[in-house]
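[AMINO ACID CHAIN]
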Amino acid sequence: MIKHTIVIVDDHILIAKALRGIIANFEDFEVLYECENGKDLQKQITSKKVVPNIVLLDISMPVMDGFETASWLKKNHPKTLVMALSMQDDDQSVIKMIKNGSKGYLLKNTHPADLEIALKTMVENGCYYPEWAASKVFASLGIESKKLLEEISITDREKEFLKYSATEMSYKEIAENMICSPRTVESYRDNLFEKLELKTRVGLAVYAIKNGYDGI
């Protein structure tokens, strides 16, 4: 059986080694090597001339963090699936990783069995996000997503807010850029939640990115 190859990028050696040991028990996956940061990954890929199918990527790392690394992989090795594995669960981190090309996002307290499911799902479907990170959005997005957006009655101002939702701006900063009150911004958000059947800002951001509404 041909296994899907994985590289672990994490500056905490014990965590990287522990992950390797866990994945060694997964039937469909194998770890090629571990890297301490994005720069190390670049060197390893160049020297070994082997590009992994999957990169398990920490976010907070010295020298070259997860955001930069995901962006580099997206540009240079777009077929490699990036799974963010972090302790950070804030909207800004999730949104930024999605924009930089991450196809999955898990927290480090994830159970090993759930990690295996996440990896299998990402390989089969092209992405994996747990419920809190808007998996419902990914599951519902497809070729017809642009048509769906056109069929839904969304105002120009709501579309403008949709673009800002895919940035790292706070709602207060979005309000300042849209020259309106924070209350009005919240109204745009709530209207889009209802129209698009979403529950989180991450969901809005993913929808915006998938539909090309992230040009700000």
Remarks:
- The two ends are 45 Å apart (CA to CA).
- Strands lie at 4-9, 29-35, 54-57, 81-86, 104-107.
